[in-house]
Amino acid sequence: MPATIVLGAQWGDEGKAKIVDFLGAEAEVVVRFQGGANAGHTVKVGDQTYIFHALPVGGINPNTQCIVGNGVVLDLAAFFEELDDLTARGLDMGEGRVFVSNCAHVVMPYHKALDQAAEASKGSAAIGTTGRGIGPAYRDKIDRSHGMRVMDLMDTDRLRERLDTALAEKNQLLTQIYGAAPLDAEEIAREYLAFAERLRPMVTDTSILLNKALDEGKRVLFEGAQGTLLDVDHGTYPFVTSSNTTAGGACTGAGVGPTRIDEIIGVTKAYMTRVGNGPFPTELHDEEGERIRELGQEYGATTGRARRCGWFDATIARMSARVNGLTSLALTRMDILDTVESLKVCTAYKLGDEVLEEFPADPRVLDKCTPIYEEIDGWCAPTTEARSYDDLPEKAKAYVRKIEELSRTSVSLISVGPERDATIRVG
Predict the structure, then answer these.
(1) Which of 12, 129, 332, 374 could lock 415 by a disulfide, CB 3.0 to 4.6 Å apart?
(2) Three-class SS of residue 116?
(3) Domain ranges in the chain?
(4) CB atoms within 10 A of CB 253
């Protein structure tokens, strides 16, 4: 595993953290390359449950360096809260373990205020953001006028100058457009200068650090947040996140070339879920959907929102394999389906009289599609004790083979429970 990308192959919440934690035991460096504190990654180790928002999940391995790459928008309040919590729980997060890119952009208080005010103003047309300021932070990054980078925090005069300029505009938006209260520059400056001093020992050019690690043959794991269908370019726009969640985003968000990547694993549930608004062709609006939600406890780690549930969609799996160049799939939450007698897999879409075997880029088209299903017998037997592929019930193995066939991608890992050892290597 010299250089492996692990990313979501659906709408996020696929169980990436479990797979990253499992593979992270073999990694020497783990890097987050996009997103921010809107991502919630849950890992169970023994009797401990950890929820990561800002740091890489791979930090559970005490021998791993943790890197926050340049593609991340960093919420420093969440970052330090998480760092302190992990330290209090016995993880060594001291000097030399955590590094932050000097080029990473910072989520400022006005980003959160604008995110929440804008979302509230949209009513039923709201996108369904987490209100963590992620979109406005990326907007400032691309706009270039008011983006605040980690390196800006390291210079007091530079921070004050950029903060004053940004607030001159942001306070007008907050007060005149949204009717919200203005923010105080002095208060923000004090808070973020304190953050800067604590952050300073961790700040470096992480692109140099990562490429040096790869030159030395170290095992590097690139940890994605959200999922392929939330990619700002390839997802169900505008119901997406504000970054590139796909494999290409790992290269730009970490500062490594694509030729350095050896393996790309797409994590997918044995069924489908989605949080927030937007089209979802295989969504179940009946008791079966509610049953899967309760069996899987499908509620967001960041927001607590109930996830929408549906059958596995092979059309989406093929699209994810295509845009990411997946080398394999990691199939999670197989155990949630242990008591389901009859399963369905979407093989293609029906649009009027037309059959679509490829995922449509236009969400308005997707919203009009109806799934074409293939019905498959459930295995109706426990999988939670399985530790090898041969341990799985025959009908469970048939389900795995069907997913491989329809997605045109082999399955390399199968998760049958939240525990680290409830993971099966295939092949």
Answers:
(1) 332
(2) helix
(3) 3-101+201-264, 105-199, 268-425
(4) 25
Would you place residue 65 in the very low, low, confident or very high pLDDT band (cuts 50, 70, 90)?
very high
Give one DSSP letter per residue of 125-177, joined into a string.
G-----SSSHHHHHHHHHH-SS--BHHHHTSHHHHHHHHHHHHHHHHHIIIII
| Alpha-carbon gap, residue 262 to 182, rounded angstroms | 49
Task: Give the helix/strand (H/E) hosting 29.
Answer: strand 29-32
Per the CB < 8 A criterion, the answer to whether 51 and 311 are in contact is no
Assess if CATH 1.10.530.10 describes domain 105-199. no
Q: Which amino acid is at 242?
A: S
Pick the CATH number of 3-101+201-264 from 1.10.10.60, 3.20.19.10, 1.20.120.1200, 3.40.440.10: 3.40.440.10
- Tokens 């979109």, residue? 135
Distance from C-alpha of 28 to C-alpha of 257, rounded to nearest angstrom: 19
* Amino acid 10: pLDDT: 98
| Position 127 pLDDT exceeds 70 | no
Which residue type occupies 166?
A: A
CA 256/CA 277 separation, integer angstroms: 33
Per-residue pLDDT at 246:
97
Asked whether the whole model's pTM tops 0.90, one would answer yes
Six-digit token string for 336: 């949630």
Q: Please list the active-site residues.
A: 13, 41
State the Cα–Cα distance between residues 219 and 211, nearest whole angstrom: 11
